[in-house]
Please model this.
Amino acid sequence: MSSLVSRVATGRVVAGGPMTEMSVPGAPARLTDHALLVAVLALGLFGAVMIASASMPVAEKIYGTPFYFVIRQLIFLGLGCIAGVVTFRIPLTVWERYGPHLIIISLCFLTLVLIPGIGKEVNGAQRWIDLGVFTVQVSETVKLFVIVYLAGYLVRRGYLVQTTFGGFLRPLALICIASTLLLLEPDFGAAVVIVATSIIMILVAGVRFSQFLAIVGVLGAVASMLILSSPYRLARFMSFTEPFAPEQVYGSGYQLSQSLIAIGTGGLGGVGFGSSVQKLDYLPEPHTDFLFAVLSEELGLIGAVCLILLYSFIVWRCFRLAKSADEQGNRFAGFLALGIGVWIGLQSFINMGVNLGLLPTKGITLPLMSYGGSSAVVFIITFSLLLRIESDLRQRASLALRANQGMPAGGSS
Model:
């Protein structure tokens, strides 16, 4: 039996032989990646604090209480933690088995949200399903389900993806259907994140580079046509190049110009927590899509860099888990961790890029920072999946080390 080298979060151990199943029968999952857990908790609490600061003027004006949004966000975070605990106890094999079902559920939800009377329209976009007490943004759930489905597909059909054009196109067809439904809402930002994450996962799976370049070229052409064919998207695309132009500063470039003023005002150390001026009815959506601008104004470059480093650590942790899972022979966990890392990194980059004027304005949240119940719950579930992956990896490596040393699995170390 060939030995297997596995790098886990605490170091290197040598496995005694190939393993095809990550979960250990009868062994409960144990939380061990404290660094990732602390980073996620810090991100969630940091987001709640910034939402409290950014949303006070808006909440006071609309609802008569300055803490309306932050209280709801804390409730959503609590619900997310409950869902996260349940998610952590579900074996990864269950997610892999039901991946195809999840993509079908995603398509059904995306269809339902477009039906009048079921989908709720806000600011010209029909992206939510109204459940009475709260609304659900379907696209947030779809992002996770697509990654789970694609991770399983790349394990089951990895050889076909690498050797045939049909194996490469088959998952993209379903993902393009989901993206088309998202564009009908419209939610261009979510569609971009889903397609880009899927393409990167397929590239890592070993698809032919010529096929990769071809599909990227086609998708680039389609994206250009979508922008040029929609006056609304074209106006947003053009405004980010000259947001302070006289014809745009009070029109399509208004959000970006106010965001840049906020970021520029913050300087190195910021104007102080709670002291933002732009959140006082100048900057639209200060607690959602443009929370990063308020953070940069109040905490300055130092606060912005700290947030970027926090996201960078989480993304690095995802990629490290993906590498460890692949080395232990569990490709599903590896692709899942990879997809989650790409998703978090890409969505964070797009949101910050929009705030900084590096990308055209689009409605996309900052993961676990921006206000939003659906986003908060889904991201906590996502991070719970990462913790489950790390727990299984460490548990399996520990058993392999004991077997390699000739010790019984239930013995003491």
Observations:
- Confidence is low (pLDDT under 50) at residues 1-27, 409-413.
- Residues 4-15+27-404 form one domain.
- Residues 6 and 12 are 6 Å apart (CA to CA).
- The beta strands are 4-8, 11-15, 119-122, 125-130, 135-137.
